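Incident review: delayed structure delivery

Summary: a single-chain prediction request sat in the queue longer than the usual turnaround. Root cause was a stuck worker, restarted by the on-call engineer. No data loss occurred. The affected request and its eventual output are reproduced below so the record is complete for anyone auditing the incident later.

Affected input:
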Amino acid sequence: MAVREEKMYFFRSWISFVMAGVMLTGCAAVETATPAIPSVTPSAAPTAVPTEISPEAACPVTEPVWAIPPEDAAVQDLPAYGYYFINEDSSIWASAWYVKNTDSPLRASEEGVKVGWFRPAGAALEITGMRLDGEAPPLEAEASCCYPTRFQASGLYFPTEGCWEVTAKAEESLLTFVVWVEP
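Output delivered after worker restart:
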């Protein structure tokens, strides 16, 4: 009986070996096979349909940060979370309350928009701006002098709608951000 079991073991091993070889050969054939690529004539190639991108979508708007501003004696309320544009070393902050406010988006108007800033205490704040997507007069900014603490109020007057880059400088600190201004 032992001889018969050895023969069966040999036979099963041989069958397993042959089956493994068949399977490996089949896999190798699949891996090396190159699918037929149909030829495409230039006249049969699909034509690209031009899509229009809205001017607002093409504007590289700066995403504001949801943050708690610095405490300041000039601000009566305790600091609370809000949207801000903040430079890399956090020395200049600009409020961006209008960015996520669908009821009051940033608009071109004679009334302007109030913007609260935090900058190095007592430093003069210079605000400039230019339209990136077309010709326009420069941004007008009112930032009164001599706030002794970090807080500084301002008014920004965008003369036209469009994509605007705003830059604020106080001492050696600089903040630049891009906003979309509605008509």
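Verification: Confidence is low (pLDDT under 50) at residues 1-35.
Action items: add queue-age alerting; document worker restart procedure.
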